[in-house]
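Example record

The entry below shows one chain as it appears in the dataset: sequence first, then structure tokens.
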Amino acid sequence: MLLRTNLRRLPDCVITQIFDSVPFDHLMEFCKHYPDKYVRDLLIQYYYCSRVQFAFNPPVPPPKATPGRRNLVTFVDSAVSQFMEDFPEVIPKTLLIDVCMDFKEAREILDKFHDRLVKCEVIDFALLEAEISADDFQFLLSFPNIKRVYFHFNSKLLLPALIDNPKLIKHPTLEHIIFCEHEITDWSGVRFPQNLKTLNLSYHRINFSTLILPQSVHSLSFIYCQIYSIKALRRQMTNELTELKITDNMLEHIVIDDLPRKLHTMDLRRNSIFSITGKEWPKGLKSLILSHNALDDDSLKVINNGVGWPEQLITLDLSVNFFDHTENLSNLPQSLKRLEISSNTFLWRDQENRVEFPVNLTYLGMSDCRVHNLSLLKFPVSLKELQLAHNGIKDLLPYGDWTELINLRQLDLFDNSITTLDNWIPPPNLRELIVENNPITRSPQFNELRNTFKFKITGMKSESNQQV
């Protein structure tokens, strides 16, 4: 009686904070039976009306639901019907429906509550090895609020329902489609939704001459599709394309003039690219991922001295290639804010001028780059995060004045050969120093001129975590 009388008098935020510590099952029972409608409605709105997931035959049990995870509440199998029956007034804003293996049971439940589910703002469907018929596909399209569908199964049986299907073509909200391991090579006659924005066709070879896309598409992904040339895709690249992902394929040569003119993001990791030529990059390209390719010093020299770089490039990933010469690093575009060059076998020769990096960098990844002598490097003042793991660094002092790096927040020195931090003057605003897997055996005695450090040291052998 005391709870019933006083609970409603509390501020809403206090009530929800109290119930954040209540086990999920108990919360469900409380919401079902508590007589005060105001409190009951508050909790239902807070926990069940934002993002809800229905999981049918999940391959692994989802994380145990707790009230504190109000960003996503999951109901599994029979609990879906129970939830819908116990809370007939609930209509989640976003509903994620995941079906694995067997679609029949899921369809029965979704059909039963169809009239309520169509009132959700957004529904996302994911079908994992849950092969569906053409009739099942028509049922999915009966939900006018589907925004995303993900099919991960052999979709050949579904193909007739994809060809010239007016419900698919004219669907009002379906904007994102993913097909993985679809086994469809010939896409002749397939017409995608007129408002489609992103399309991912992966893990199977495609005859691209049969693929027709609406002009609304701005993002394309092709993973493991045996693609040898971007030029073969030129017809499929719409005028509005801004994102292109062609990873784990067989690209060797990129002609930048073949790229869509409005691209701002391009991911070409894990190909065999050794050559980039042409006259003009897309002017708005801001992110370029070229990791795990076959680029070498000659490739980089051609770009630096001839082709040039995109004028607005902000993110560049050149990790896991075949670069040796460090002089090319000083000619990278000054517009960069994020640069990743890890896992390249650079040869660091003694030289008069230190290797400098773009002046606007905030992140620099140089793990596993054979860095031994920091005196050969000059980091930009703008840097906030510096990754130097898996190198051969023995001493931090040769770098010189670390205090110039006034913006540096994290310094990762994991798995180097540093034996002491004594007399090192850290950057003034450092928040985390990672020295795990270094032979440091005692707490550092920093230079006496700087004795007011406030950052976390992670990975000390004597003390795994300490605040300085």
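Notes for this example: The radius of gyration is 28 Å. The first strand starts at residue 51 and ends at 56.
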